[in-house]
Design brief:
The protein is of the alpha/beta class. The protein is about 45% helix and about 20% strand.
Length: about 525
């Protein structure tokens, strides 16, 4: 009997426990199960999204490597010649429907250069080819075949619609300086056109300062960046010798930037980062003696930016021990020193080891030759005067855009890019109309279109120490920002603006590589 009662109590306790557990499961166990279910669904969505993203990237890479068959040259179509492979001309090519034209591209370089990141190439933050997009690769993906000639346009006959081209097998000679190497007669060819788009950009303006061509480095083309990188490492390695005087060592380690615009500011910032992140590791004794000086003729640097951003930049440069000389004009550049005129009119001679000239631009020789044929309308020596439709004033069937065109806007990459998109859209529309009616006058039909109007997307500049500044239009007012967060915005904006997935991938990998392994200090 005792055993029976004990067994009953045991069963009773077990039953109560089971009932309690069942009750607990019924009352509160649903929430963890629901949360687990939601997490699983989110996980599946994330995995599915990643799979779709990877598949899309793989498809883009496959399409890039395996372009479709192109339509051949059509003798019934008009010939459209694009001069240059800068921001304007390349944007036209990228957005142009080649179904309507036989397109020919002429340029002394066979690639598009993403110039906003060029200062990063001077110290190895980004590798050179990461910001170079081959023109033939871009042309190969167009609907109709595009002809490319690696040549410089040295002459134009606007009346006969004929261009004179000079083959350039050593285009670095053309790009590093304004000098033109001699050309053999057999390298001169002519090219007929029906329509011409001039987007040759500008060339470096030395303002007639003696010695700049011979002794300074420019920062406009990729050969310039290579030259700066070599000169920089030459100066550092020569300063490492023990048999030189301390005065000579200080001269070699004095780096000078002439020009306080975005290019000069960004190069000074990149140079400072190279000094702090890399030279300090491998040349500790020399790194402490390196000096960076920025020379600007105007009262302040970055004149196109907001006053708060100018002050922030100058404060950051002061913290980074970068000397800024404003109201200071360079009057002469010598092999080892340069002469400046100070704000009070006095002159000072300053020794240097590397001098980078990052000032304004002037017209290319071919632009001057076009102007010479149109003396009544082309009266400005700085470039080609165009109307609101980018048509060259006084000419027939010629458009101009970018730095070589005087359209009333600043010579900026985003201006040239917007002009290229607008012109491509108009040519596409007019080309389709001409295909339906061959009597259509494309050049005259532009009068019926909406004129080009530039919309500012703001300005960005890197100032060193992983800091950037931004002056952005938003809701009819300007938003200014500076610091580390702006630096990451600067990076993301440029990654988005790069011309291809290939360029974006290479630049991103260069940034990752620099973070883990530092910059390459070897001399090419």
């Amino acid at each position: 009997m005792f055993a029976t009662r004990a067994g009953f109590r045991t069963l009773q306790r077990a039953g109560v426990s089971q009932i309690q557990r069942a009750g607990m499961s019924t009352l509160g166990g649903g929430k963890p199960a629901a949360r687990t279910s939601r997490l699983r669904r989110l996980g599946r969505v994330a995995v599915g999204g990643a799979a779709v993203g990877v598949s899309y990237m793989a498809w883009l890479m496959y399409r890039n490597r395996n372009p479709a068959e192109q339509q051949p040259y059509d003798p019934t179509k008009k010939t459209l010649v694009l001069l240059g492979t800068g921001w304007g001309s390349t944007t036209v090519l990228k957005n142009l429907d080649t179904e309507n034209f036989n397109v020919v591209v002429v340029s002394p370089r066979n690639y598009f250069l993403f110039t906003p990141l060029l200062p990063s190439c001077t110290v190895g933050t980004i590798e050179n080819r990461s910001i170079m997009e081959p023109v033939r690769q871009l042309a190969r993906h167009k609907q109709r075949e595009v002809t490319f000639y690696e040549a410089e346009c040295t002459g134009i006959d606007a009346e006969r619609k004929e261009l004179t081209l000079e083959r350039r097998t050593h285009s670095d000679d053309l790009q590093v300086s304004n000098a033109r190497p001699p050309t053999a007669p057999e390298d001169v060819v002519t090219l007929k056109y029906d329509y011409l788009v001039v987007g040759v950009g500008g060339t470096v303006n030395t303002f007639g300062t003696p010695g700049v061509e011979e002794h300074a480095c420019f920062l406009k083309e990729m050969p310039d960046a290579r030259k700066i990188r070599r000169r920089l490492m030459d100066a550092v390695e020569n300063a490492a010798f023990d048999d030189i005087s301390e005065e000579e060592r200080d001269r070699l380690l004095h780096m000078v930037v002439v020009g306080g615009g975005p290019t000069g500011i960004e190069y000074a910032g990149e140079l400072h980062d190279f000094l702090v992140d890399d030279l300090a590791q491998w040349y500790p004794a020399l790194a402490r003696r390196v000096r960076i000086t920025l020379v600007e003729a105007l009262p302040n640097v970055l004149p196109a930016f907001d006053k708060k951003l100018i002050d922030y930049t100058q404060s950051t440069f002061s913290e980074n021990q970068i000397t800024i000389l404003t109201r200071t004009m360079v009057k002469e550049v010598k092999a080892k020193s340069f002469v400046v005129q100070n704000g009070d009119g006095s002159r000072t001679e300053i020794p240097y080891g590397l001098l980078v000239w990052a000032t304004g631009i002037k017209a290319q020789p071919v632009v001057n030759r076009i102007r010479e044929q149109l003396p009544a309308t082309q009266t400005n020596a700085r470039g080609l005067l165009v109307d609101e439709y980018l048509r060259v004033k006084g000419a027939r069937d010629i458009w101009a855009l970018g730095d070589c065109a005087l359209s009333g806007y600043a010579p900026l990459a985003q201006v040239a890019s917007q002009q290229g998109k607008w012109l491509a859209r108009r040519l596409n529309a007019m080309g389709s109309a001409a295909a339906a009616d061959p009597a259509t006058d494309i050049f005259a039909e532009f009068d019926a279109a909406q004129p080009f109007k530039y919309s500012s997307q703001g300005s960005l500049a890197y100032i060193g120490s992983e800091k950037a500044i931004a002056d952005l239009p938003l809701f009819n007012r300007n938003i200014t920002a500076g610091g580390i967060a702006t630096f990451w915005f600067w990076k993301s904006a440029y990654l988005n603006e790069l011309f291809s997935l290939r360029n974006s991938t290479l630049v991103a990998s260069d940034w990752v590589k620099r973070f883990f392994f530092g910059r390459d200090i070897s001399r090419e």
